[in-house]
Queue: 2 jobs
Job 1
Amino acid sequence: MNYTDVITGNNLNKRFGKFELDVPELHIPEGFSTALVGENGAGKTTLLNILGGIRRDNKGSVTYFDGKKIDDDGIMERIGFTGTRNYLLPHWNGKQVRELSDMLFDSFDKEKFDSICKALNIDDSIFGPKGKCISKLSDGNIMKLMLATVFARKTDLLILDEPASALDPLMRDMLSDILRTYIAEGNGKRSVLFSTHNISDMEDVTDYIIVMDNGKVLEQGFVTDIKEKYILIKGDAEKEKAASEFMISAHAGKYGFEGIALSEDTERFAGMDVSFEQPDLFQICVALLKQNSKLQMPVL
């Protein structure tokens, strides 16, 4: 598929002790929603902080909107960023969040912000004359507050770190609707990049996916292409040993096994009496991450 990059990264590198983020090449397509998937500690937040201009101590280069730099005139105005819980200072109240956002961004609309906060049912006790600190809010309400600050602006790119993790199921579903609307109203010029450790929550709003593990990119591409690249294999339990030789990962149960393999390897399963299905993103991501994960099943 032909597309223009909204973000292009080259030779991105950042070390923290024994951990190293190492991404030689990164392409985020314009006009689409991109999911950055990986285990906790995979480097997702570090990468998003670099792409969002929050970190400046990394090696490599990042360009936006066809070659522009983060400090070029008007670029930060076009980018909406939400971080982890501590992205907003805990002693701030809602009024301070509103006033600071208005001071920092020319396109911030106070009335729209208030309307979004009301629509998302954010605890209004943070907005009064003696508004309580946002540290008193639940994680879900803090995330909704951060989302309200970016949706109250005129932006062309959203970079969202784990936006769904703290939200309840109803709000996660609404967030997907909001992101789809945001992109649709941009006429191909609005883009979203968000991280998640559970793609099942956001699969229906994911057009492009990047799978990370231990600071490196394992896989990336448009969802339609990724689903064609891999195949879900199912078969009887006694076939699992022979079939696993050609699979990326497999899971055996009482009544059979299933696993993920490359679609180009389906001929290798000839004569094994197995079935083939199209996997979902969750199954593909888990299979890829299992290859290098340090997780082990504990003895119970």
Note: The longest strand covers residues 5-16.
Job 2
Amino acid sequence: MSAARDYAKLIDEEVWAFIRKTAESYPEDAVAGSIADQRRVYDTMCAVFHQGRPKGVTVEDRSADGVPVRIYSAGDPSCTVMYFHGGGFVVGGLDSHDDVCAEICAMTGYRVVSVDYRLSPEHHHPAAFDDCWAATRWAAQEYACELVLAGDSAGGNLAAAVAHHARGRLDSILGQVLIYPGLGGDGSAPSFEENAEAPMLTLAEVRFYENIRLAEGQAVPVGDPTYAPLQDSDFSGLPPTVIVTADCDPIRDDGAEYAARLREAGGKVHRINEEGLVHGYLRARTMAERARASFERIEVAIEALGQGIWPYD
């Protein structure tokens, strides 16, 4: 049995300041509220942390075969990044990660396509996946260039799901960057117990977000990587993958298990476990040095994969 962790020692004051600022808009018991309330407080929190868009980034909202997307461009992009936002499949949208996508565009020079997939509980699995896959196919055809898949939390799940499904269907994916992803681990890994009461995301909240993806009476999918990429039986043929996990996060070990499966299948994979960081830390990148440095590593990974470079050997 793993012991609970001492977050007072593991997390520095800058990250604690971020946690406190988050709680001002998004209280710890937010998941106990109605879906409308959850979305309202999440949107309010994201607006508080929004950093604006860097100069030189142009933005256009479009429909990708019926799926709303927001496209960020700067100059003449050589690659397209598909970005799938986090939010437990319940909250978030084009505005919640607007500044993150704009900064990725500015730093890499790549086009970024942010996908506004359908949310639960109004839309059950596989609606979110179907939208992400449709938008990815659309981008590949629309721009006739290679793709990098990226996403955080639930969006990391969706990015990996698209990568698995794309094998034999779409040959333009250069890599994937998964940021504190929830990949459908069975809950037996140490992080689920060690970080069950972690700041920003608890194990009880993880279970809430898992269950809400399914309709009443809908069986939990088995062997369905579009629901949980870790359920796949074949991890070969996947694109080069960078996984960035937060050490103080109950789903940390989903990333570790996924990396191990890719290595066993002979794939290129690099995992970065960020010490002292918590789930959702992308919003802390201007408040905490640890988060800023991690976001820089994420941008470097996206840029390298988009150039077909593997800098981790």
Note: The chain has one domain: 7-306.
